[in-house]
Amino acid sequence: MAREVDMSTKYDPTSVEAGMYKKWLDEDVFKPSGNPEAKPYSIVLPPPNVTGKLHLGHAWNTTLQDMLIRQKRMQGYDTVWIPGMDHAGIATQAKVEAMLNEQGISRYDLGREKFVDKVWEWKDDFADTIHKQWAKLGLSLDYSRERFTLDDGLSKAVRKVFVDLYNQGLIYRGEYIINWDPKARTALSDIEVIHKDDQGAFYHVKYPFADDTKFNGKDYIEIATTRPETMMGDTAVAVNPSDERYKDLVGKKVVVPLVNRTIPIIADQYVDPEFETGMVKITPAHDPNDFKVGNRHDLKRINTMNEDATMNENAGKYDGMDRFDARKAMVKDLKDQGLMIKIDPIVHSVGHSERTGVQVEARLSTQWFVKMKPLAQKAMENQKTKDSVNFIPERFEHTFMQWMENVHDWVISRQLWWGHRIPAWYNNQTGKIYVGEKAPKDPENWTQDPDVLDTWFSSALWPFTTLGWPDIDSKDYQRYFPTNTLVTGYDLVFFWISRMIFQSLHFTGKRPFKNVLLHGLIRDEHGVKMSKSLGNGIDPMDVIDQYGADALRWCLSTGTTPGQDMKFSYSKVESAWNFVNKIWNASRYVIMNLGDMKQPKLPAQSEWNLADRWILSKLNHVVNHVTEEYDKFNFGEANRSLYDFIWNDFCDWYIEMSKEILTGSDEVAKENTRNILAYVLDQILRLLQPVMPFVTEKIWLSMPHVGKSLVVADYPANHDEFNDSQAESDMNHLIDVIKAVRNIRSEVNAPLSSPVDILVKTDDPELKKVLEDNSDYIDRFGHPNKLEIGTDINIPKLAMTSVITDAEISIPLDELIDLNDEKTRLQKEVQKFEAEVQRAQKKLANKKFVENAPEAVVNEQKEKQKDNENKLKAVQIRLKDVEDALNK
Q1: NCBIfam families from the xrefs (predicted)?
Q2: Minimum mean pLDDT among 97-111, 641-655, 668-682, 774-788: which range?
Q3: Separation between Cα atoms, residue 260 and residue 659, nearest integer Å
């Protein structure tokens, strides 16, 4: 009796996914189980920036996290996946400023308070968009715990961390050379600077002596610089103390061109005597190395630029000019005054702001810094303990350690208006600094530092502040911290991962997460990094609209390995859709044949036929393999084995074999087959649910089931009683026979509908019995006119033969075959098996292989050699028969 099935004849992702996410949210299936006996498993979502929509990289990253949390939830863990978003300081402010600029407005026109209101409006708009995208991707997030890096709880935590580090002497304020973004008008950390090759030049300039000194017969020295616009800030010329050429010049004075200010010639080890002239100008306010030289020699620091990289009053007549316009003007003046010796064009690496793209200035500035050495040391020491962070792939631990070993103090202040305001105040009368979690009790006498903290300062606290810290008695903090796995891109090892590790160890005494799974970048099908400028970016929401979330998720998690970049193409998504469609159609067939079944129930083991024993054994293997690969974060390998089992074993063989029984008259056999079909499909849907949540839920709810949602159903477990190597071996022989018949038919274009005699010759009595007992399957798939299975079978000369392990399959083809073609085919078969035999012989002749390889591997090679030798012998006999027939 056919069952009424509410499933279309073709998989339609739009109708399948409609309303499903709301159903899950209404049923609260994404929240922790609350079972105190269950092991906790927690993930914090790397918070996307509220700067725009999610891209394909986000889709990849969140899919992998969702697969983990969904599987663990089904396995009975008390799971929580905490969502959130990052205020993204400079990135968000830059976006809002660009929007305002298009309206002819600057942030200064609005003032700080109104500008920040505008940014909050932006944040709310894009947070809403991101929520919709999370839903469309099917992410099983616990929204009741959602956080934002500027919400009250996290702001309180940030203030505590700043104050504690300050009181511990690990945060300090000082005047240093920092990276400066003149467009955003803020400091940048080293890792926010991207170096690009730019066209530049070495400008060789005359610096005249202040007196009548001569050097090599000239009244000047030659200085080469790439940045003449900073000359007004020169306070010395330096030479190496070991440079014999210039030892008599140390202590002399020269005049800075264009400004006519006298500066000394000094000796310092910093100078490379081999580079250019071996003499360098020292500009302490505009170069980090010059700053250090200046400190050693007590040189004055002259800042010649404003915050926006225009020249200031210290630049004399160039005051108010843009830095690059000033360079051109200075070069012209140097030429006009006969002070330019030559200009050598060069290509050199220049730092640019990661966010605004403009050329970064090295600028003397008073900033707040974190003293990194003690924090880095603790992080490195922790990696030697049992509580170290497990990097996947392992090679990225070296990247982490290397950065920690060479870390510089971290400039954490940013001259922005959007972000965590630095909790420091300056007394209006005395200038005294007060740092505290709360404002001074007499705020009218104090002015708060206008700067905000680097975005990464608050992001570094994400794993523990999202769980309630600094309230260490918080239930979530007690239950779920440290978290289990962080999934993020390998490009964030420096920016984010390192900072989370050292801040967590310092403030909680624990690692922030047990595992950090690193993936690469999404590239287009040609391997080119996706970007807006190249026009090769793909919106994941567009992909979902066309193919569905399940197909996109399958595509993103298949064919990848941890730490590697991924090539994305629509052809891969199309293949994924085809696979989902295959599952859909197979499921529809199964459900239609389940009759009035209320719940799948496996028949007694004694009732299982060969196909039943085989499919359950194969199912158990795939359950164990997928579980193992998830534990190793090898999602691509897990998906590959699932694909092979579902497409090949279940759909192409077991379902097709079930039709033989379901169309028969044995009601007991029919009921058994229905139950096994339903059971295996149910287990498949459970295995697939983490990666294909929508379609599996839809199918599962359409078939006999117990429970409200597949999301919280039990994950498949190992069943030793299913393992049946004999059934697998027997079934493989049966499949090989059927494939051999199909291949022979295909070679001579004999349609399946045309009956042919099928002759199976075997000397193995057990194989003979297996094939005879299951001859119904050979009848169904081979459509024989006559089927003979035995040891003494007379095979006609005019026949096509295929050799499998322990058997020969022959089909007499009378006039359907050309003996010459058959001879050619068999000759190729002989060559193939000869090559296989030689390969095995060579491997087994290798003493190193035999002595060092595991015994099981060596034995496997020996079995392969024996099998191929038997096949070769059988083919050679058939070839001789054909040659004899041709010679008659």
Answers
A1: PRK05729.1, valS
A2: 774-788
A3: 99
Residue 217 CB neighbour total at 10 angstroms: 5
Query: In the numeric block, which tokens belong to residue 389?
Result: 């962070």
Nearest CA to 188 out of 416, 348, 493 is that of 416
Peptide bond into 440 cis (omega under 30): no
Q: Where are the beta strands (DSSP E) in 300-357?
A: 340-353
User: Is the Cβ–Cβ distance between 818 and 750 less than 8 Å?
Assistant: no
Q: Which helix (H) or strand (E) holds 131?
A: helix 112-137
Question: Strands 446-448 and 424-427, how do they pair?
Answer: antiparallel
Q: Does residue 407 carry a pLDDT above 80? A: yes
Question: Per residue in 790-841, pLDDT tens?
Answer: 888 887 767 777 888 888 888 886 645 667 887 888 899 899 999 999 988 8
Its sign, for the CA torsion 885, 886, 887, 888, is: positive
390-392 sheet: strands from edge to edge: 390-392, 513-519, 483-489
Beta carbons of 77 and 455 less than 8 angstroms apart: no
CA triple 852-854-857, angle to 5 deg = 115
Cβ 451 vs Cβ 415: under 8 Å: yes
**Apex 79 CA angle, 75 and 85, nearest 5:** 140
**593-597, long-range: CB within 8 Å, 24+ apart, which pairs?**
593/2, 593/3, 593/658, 593/662, 593/674, 593/677, 594/3, 594/674, 594/677, 594/678, 594/703, 594/704, 595/1, 595/2, 595/3, 595/674, 596/1, 596/3, 597/3, 597/674, 597/675, 597/678, 597/704
User: 575 phi and psi, to 5 degrees?
Assistant: -60, -40
- How far from 801 is each of 9, 153, 304, 775, CA to CA, in Å? 40, 76, 90, 19
What letter would DSSP give residue 715?
Answer: P
Give the residues across from 281 on adjacent strands: 237
**Distance, first Cα to last Cα, the chain:** 59
- Given a contact cutoff of 8 angstroms between Cβ atoms, the answer to whether 389 and 193 are in contact is no
What is the distance between the alpha carbons of residues 184 and 863, in angstroms, rounded to a whole number?
70
pLDDT tens-digit readout, 414-440:
889 999 999 999 999 999 999 999 999
Q: Could you give the 3-state DSSP secondary structure of residue 236?
A: strand
Tell me, letter by letter, the H, E, C secondary structure of 751-797. Answer: CCCCCEEEEEECCCHHHHHHHHHCHHHHHHHHCEEEEEEECCCCCCC
Contact 80, 140 (CB under 8 A): no
- DSSP 8-state assignment for residue 313: G
Q: Are 314 and 321 in contact (CB under 8 A)?
A: no
- Buried b / exposed e over 763-799, threshold 16 CB at 10 Å, is eeeebbebbeebbebbeebbbbeebebeeeeebeebb
Q: How many residues does the chain have?
A: 888
**Alpha-carbon torsion, ordered 732, 738, 743, 748, to 10 deg:** 160
Q: Biggest alpha carbon distance in the chain?
A: 120
532 annotated to a ligand binding site:
yes
Q: Would you put residue 219 in left (φ > 0), alpha (ψ -120 to 50) or beta?
A: alpha
How far out from the chain centre does Cα 407 lie?
25
Tens digit of each residue's pLDDT (9 = 90 or more) over 108-143:
899 999 999 999 999 999 999 999 999 999 999 999
Residues 140, 451 contacting (CB under 8 angstroms):
no
Which letter, b or e, does each residue of 812-830 get, where b requires 16 or more Cβ atoms within 10 Å of its Cβ?
Answer: bbeeebeeeebbebbeebb
Neighbouring CB atoms inside 10 A of 324's CB total: 11
Q: Phi/psi at 515 (nearest 5 deg)? A: -120, 145
Nearest to 98 by CA among 52, 132, 150, 133: 52
As a whole number of angstroms, the distance between CA 862 and CA 693 comes to 44
Element (H, E) at 113: helix 112-137
Pairing of strands 784-790, 361-370: unpaired
